[in-house]
Automatic annotation (TrEMBL):
Name of the protein in its database record: AAA family ATPase
Keywords on record: ATP-binding, Coiled coil, Nucleotide-binding
Matches recorded under Pfam families: AAA_16 (PF13191)
InterPro entries referenced in this protein's UniProt entry, alphabetically: AAA_16, P-loop_NTPase, TPR-like_helical_dom_sf
Organism name: Streptomyces rameus
Family matches, as SUPFAM superfamilies: P-loop containing nucleoside triphosphate hydrolases (SSF52540), TPR-like (SSF48452)
Amino acid sequence: MTEGRPPAAGSAPLWERDAEIAAVAQALDVLCADQTSAGSLLVLHGEAGLGKTALLAETRRIAERRGCAVWSARGAETLKSVPFHVVRQLLQPALLSLLPEEAREYLGDWYEIAGPALGITDPQEGSADPQYVCDGLVAAVRRLARREWPLVLLLDDAHWADQETLRWLAAFAERLDDVSVLVVVARRPGDVSADSTRLLDAVAEAAGRFVNNLSALTPDATAGLTRATLGRHADDAFCREVWAVTGGNPYDTVELLAKVQDSELQPVEAHAGELRALNRAARGGGLVDRLKGLGLEATRFAWAAAILGTGITVDMVARLATMTDELARNCAELLCNARILTAPDPSVGTERDPDELEFVHPLIATAVYNSIPPGVCTAMHGVAAQIITELGRGAAEAARHLLKVHPDDDEELVEQLREAAREHLAVGAPDAARRCLERALQEPPRPEVHAHVLYELGCATLLTNPAGTIDQLQSALGMSGLDGDDRVDAVVRLSQALLHNDQLEEAVRTVEAEAARHEAGPVRMRLQAFQYMWECIHGETVSPARSRRLAELASTCTGRDNAERALLILRGFDAMTHGESADVVIDLCDRALVNGRLAPGLGWTDPEWGMELLMMLGSAYAYADRLDRAESLFAEARRVYTSAGWRGGHLSLANAFLGLAYRRQGRLRDAESILREGLVLAERVGRRLPLYWWSTCGLVDTLLARGRVEEAWSVAEQYGFAPPYPSTIVLPDIRSVRGRLLLAVGRTEEGVGELEAAEKTAASRGGHNPVLAPWSIDLAKALAGQDPARAAQLAADARRQAERFGTDTAIGEALRCAAALAKGQDAVQLAARAVTYLEASPCQYEHAAARVEYGIAARSVAELNRGLDLARACGAEALVAQAREVLETGRGLY
């Protein structure tokens, strides 16, 4: 038995816990020593009854003696479906102690985002992005931790925490490096869903070596505890049997010894045989029998308390159990004396209702709840929901009880669950909304409502789970009841979900079939616009015939409504990808604007058209050398999505496209930074989805431009930047970037193969833009040594296509390629012409490269220095090194 063992039975769970207490003390030493120290995370892992809660209580005592603020929360088995339940327990008391203006000041921009999830402010209309809400909660705790230092956060029974809390906890655990706070988490193994397991494992991984796996008490410790409770006269045989019966579980040991005291059993070998019967009475079925022995009223009171799970007050229990206040108080007293219920520890948390109660241990709460007859349990949940509704606490709070009610064709319950789903979505809890809507479907809804519930269910996960959206929306559209604008909106949302799930051909067919159901007019034109939109971004099979049909339809458009504006944008994007005149591209895009701005109803968060159309508008501007307009559009997208709290796929794509604009401008450092941020966001939504490729491709392209080839290859390996590619178009051209990467790492044959595959795709599409898809330029340079005739032909084709497109960038890049293949004065003259065009271009990296190449060809120190300055400004490290090397060598320069 360890030294410093607890002297009393009440401290039993702390026996043989010296190592854990020492770890807590060491973490508190670090926390209290320096406000700038990194945060710490301890995880207490063990089966029920091994003393995790007691260790948390001891942590609180030690921390408070050292002047720490301590906030605590606890998961509950019957409350796992309540979103943000545990994180609200943790933070609400501190936030509610502040004046509203103080809370707003401390949370800053995150107040409107995290406040609704924490229950301290009303949510805004619409759906909140769950990832952004999670980020807001992380930011809120970080700010509060700095205000309250030294701060200790205790989270008990984390295995029973709601998904939203676990998502926050996993995210917070990863970001403890620069916030001084101690977090202690207690959890059991197993007994959780796959999603909860994943999140809890992430927390354990963040804790690293600070995961303490608690073990049962040894026979010696059990003997010491027995004698500390019953007296030193307890003999060895009796103590050994206590250990054998309880398996050294501290909670079971304490409960058994309490039963021994209650029964006045002498702790000697002659009575050791009675311990097993006493142990059975202390928990499980024995506990239930003991509860029944207290009488029917006390049993009903305990059942009602177990149904409530939290906020257990005599008044609430009396209402739920339909008994008088006097009878309820008598029952509460009986149950407290029987060590089933207890008053909360007054030292924990903030001011509480004097009548509030809680179960002595979660094991008791579970046993009582499981003992309720199924029919009674269902009925009591229904009554609890009714009471909560009558108290005006909202559908979301009543929902956890409504989920337990048996289906009974109840129209009112369907509407309550739909309302609860809307409330959950508004605070960023789509999983909770999904559960409510799935339960509403079991009722079932009336035929005319059924499709609408399916539609709402599909939309609940549109931001986070495109695959989950598809089945629900397809089912809704297959039923009657979803008509008019709602049906068209469902079709459009379904096509968007299919697109983002890399099912592009099905997305096209979906809107095409719906368009065929409508007569000519605004609705049909809107659907046709979506059809062409999805076809425009198809990476492989866009045909010249489709482009001609789009051009014919767009020629009838003047931009008088958003459907016509959409078709003008699509026509401009298509013309840009095929390398038609840039002037035509810009004219089409400009006609889609209203006084140079996005038209009402075509904004980044407007639901009718979606973000894809505006991404295509900005891309057309970006590759037509109107980078000022492209940057303005994409920066606005990022700002709007951030303000709206959309932290999923929308913000990821906004970052990717803004990174594209920065890369085109030559702002390589800014491009790399924002593309990395977009990639992190994309990973949260899911790998291999189209939006994931945009960030990865842009980042690889940017790193290659900077000359960081090994890092570009590492990113490609880490994020799977290799075939098979998505069916959607990716900017910059995915095969061109992959081919250039392979050439850069010396895998020439594979690189040439990728570029030739890009050539075949361009041929099937009827042409290409040599800036958007520069495969011809890269392939010409790669083949210059082994097949100079073909290289020359590719360079000539690129130059002809560039002159057709007509931008300074396109022509300048084609001339750079021609200069690279030429020799002597021809090379110098071509390089000089490339500089002339690229100097007028907004693409500063290409200008810098042209200057350096011209300086080398012309042996000009002045041109090399100008190129060096431009390369430094862009962050093009390899180009800087190349220019320096030539300048430092100085041979032949003048």
